[in-house]
Amino acid sequence: MKYNIVILLVFISSIGLAQPKQPISLDEFKSKIEQNNQSLQANEQEYLQMRAEYRETNAAFLPQLSASHTAYRTDNPVMAFGTLLNQGVFSESDFAINNLNNPSPVSNFVTTFQVEQPLLNFDKLVMRSALKNRAEAQQQQNIFKKEALLLQAERLYMQLQLAYKSVEVLEKSKATAEANLKSIEDFYEEGLLVKSDLLSAKVRLNEVENALQQANNELVSISDYMHYMMNEEGELLSPENQLEMKLTSDINETSLVDRSDVLAMDLSVEAYEKMKKSAGMMYLPTLNAFGNVQYFDQDVFGTGAQNFFVGASLNWNLFEGGSRIAKNQQMKAQLQQAKLEAEDYKASAQIELDKAKRSLVEAEQKMNRNALSLEQAQEAFDIRKNRFEEGLERTTDLLNAEVQLANQELLYNQSIFEFNLAQLQVQFLGNVN
Fold this sequence. Notes:
By secondary structure, this protein is of the alpha+beta class. It has one domain (2-430): Outer membrane efflux proteins (OEP) (Up-down Bundle), CATH 1.20.1600.10. It has ten helices and six strands; from the N terminus they run H-E-H-H-E-H-H-E-H-H-E-H-E-E-H-H. Strand 5 (286-297) and strand 6 (305-315) form a beta hairpin. The chain is elongated and about 140 Å long. The chain starts with a helix and ends with a helix. The relative contact order is 0.13.
């Protein structure tokens, strides 16, 4: 019963892997991520929020315009007297004592156009510049996050290439294991080998089939995650080209100076410096102009009488209960914190870059050693295969040589992947284009 279940699972899995494949290039994969990835879209919305916050500070130098229309009816003596004057219809009869004390109800419709013009608001102007730096810092941070996501995309694409290469190696290893099993079965039927040799060959074939099944599952998982990063669904992805070693020129010309995340930290520090300066300027007076034009009439939206009112206001808040002193202290502490965090970030980034460079050297050496080991494993297998067919080699030695060859080929492909990835990591951390 258990054997039948295993066969059924293998059959179902084979149907899944036999589905149509969707070829995709690295450039196409990265392009779709740039267009559709929800993480990048969320980062862009965060930047747009900060840019909108910066644009709100246009009020520090742009006028504010408003219009209103007010209607009322009253027999209040003071209000009625003033309304008649505003409408320009006051007459001598309105000076009569009875008319002054007991005026007839009057209706009034007032249309007002008002303008307020900031003239000198030093603290707001400096704060505007600080918010601009914050928005620019977020933009640079988004650039870095995008570069990090595209690095992840290249890694995933190479993992897909490696997965297909592993499947290819394991399929070849399976074919070799099947051929070895056939030879061993023939020798066993001729009485040249014992049953333990036959069982060992069958165990080896089962091991390869299990590894092949695992590699196929890994391939599907990588494809699914790539679809997730592109925010789409589709068929099983396949790379347009195979995994191969890539050499990047100018890999040692690395620097943190122009890295977008480092620029973001510097812009953030600059923003805090300006915010501290803005807090200090809250002690300065502010100067603002204002004016309005009003139309008074007995009818709706009438313009029977007009007057204007203009002026300027100089305000100087000398003491606000110590809140400005506390604000200055807060800005000073935040600025110092931002400077310390920026220096710590740069130091950490330099350590990561140096580590990536060492990892690249190690990955290259490992790849070269594995290439040599693969040649040696292939030669050793060929020798043992020939000797086994001549009856000069034990079955276990042949199987061990075949295992060693398959493992070494997998290790070599893995080392190519690690070398290419190490180069990408140095490029990313060192801002190499």
